[in-house]
Design goal:
single chain, alpha/beta, Rossmann fold, 13 strands, globular, binds adenosine-5'-triphosphate, binds magnesium ion
């Protein structure tokens, strides 16, 4: 789905119309956003939508990935109709396939690869997919939190709107642990993507868990992933206990089905 480049002043379109609506127009420019989600819930797809919206809004994006080789990400983006390679050639996107230690390496007067890339394309947006790879650095939790807090602050100073993704191990159930490092406290906004088991089927759901400085839709909404990417529209009206692990239609809804 393509969205208008025109977002309200001070907002950065997420690239997904339904999510923009949940947020009253998009992320706040310059904020750090965590997209936390179970496997396959659309974290990377949302990162690509956000990148595509940046191209439309004339806001270049640095896209950092630890998971993919460039060819893989070009292919996955192409499948959704996004020509990442030509955006790169036009200087609208800079793809950085790197390692977490390289991202954390910048300190003192010496700018690292991330800051260099941001300055090189005049990036207004940044995607890091995914923070889960920082686990492989084997740092103590408090040390990692200090490092990530420093990184978030550097990004705020650079003025980029940042989307970082992180995996949630739980597939369904009431309790979700977002991160060992308190990432959810270091960022301004948290978008939760998770599964809801609905009468024997796993469906994907999105919730805006936190949105510093703005009002937002507090409902869970259904996430659809398809050939053109992500769409977020319907809520779970008429369904009860959606986060408990096995949601059911309310008594009223079931009764309605019998009439
Ligand atoms: N053409 C399509 N039609 C239907 N569903 C699709 C299509 N393309 C992708 N998907 C869905 O999108 C999911 C993958 O999306 P994405 O890679 O964005 O998720 P992710 O949260 O980043 O996954 P991971 O946890 O592996 O990083 C697939 O599991 C599939 O359910
Ligand atoms: Mg992914």
């Amino acid at each position: 789905m393509r969205v208008d480049a025109d977002s309200p002043k001070g907002r950065a379109s997420t690239g997904v119309q339904g999510l923009d609506r949940m947020l009253g127009g998009g992320f706040f420019q310059g904020d750090a956003v965590l997209v936390a989600g179970s496997p396959g819930t659309g974290k990377t797809t949302l990162g690509l939508h956000f990148t595509a919206a940046g191209v439309e809004a004339d806001e270049p994006t640095v896209y950092v990935t630890f998971e993919y080789l460039p060819q893989q990400i070009y292919r996955d983006a192409n499948a959704k109709g996004w020509d990442l390679k030509s955006w790169e050639e036009d200087g609208k996107v800079r793809l950085l396939c790197t390692t977490p230690d390289m991202v954390l390496a910048e300190s003192g007067a010496k700018a690292g690869i991330l800051e260099d890339a941001i300055r090189a394309v005049g990036a207004k947006r940044l995607v890091i997919d995914s923070m889960t790879h920082f686990e492989f650095l084997g740092m103590e939790n408090h040390e990692m939190r200090t490092q990530l807090s420093g990184l978030m602050n550097r990004l705020r100073l650079l003025g980029v709107t940042t989307v970082i993704t992180h995996e949630i191990a739980e597939i369904v159930g009431p309790a979700v642990r977002i991160s060992e490092w308190g990432l959810e406290f270091l960022v301004d906004t948290v978008i939760l993507l998770r599964y809801v088991e609905l009468e024997g089927e796993l469906v994907k759901a999105c919730n805006v868990l936190k949105f510093r400085g703005g009002d937002h839709d507090r409902r869970y909404r259904r996430v659809e992933l398809g050939a053109t990417g992500m769409s977020i529209e319907a809520d779970f009206a008429g369904i009860e206990d959606i986060t408990r692990g096995s949601a059911r239609r309310t008594v009223q809804e079931r009764a309605r089905g019998l009439i």
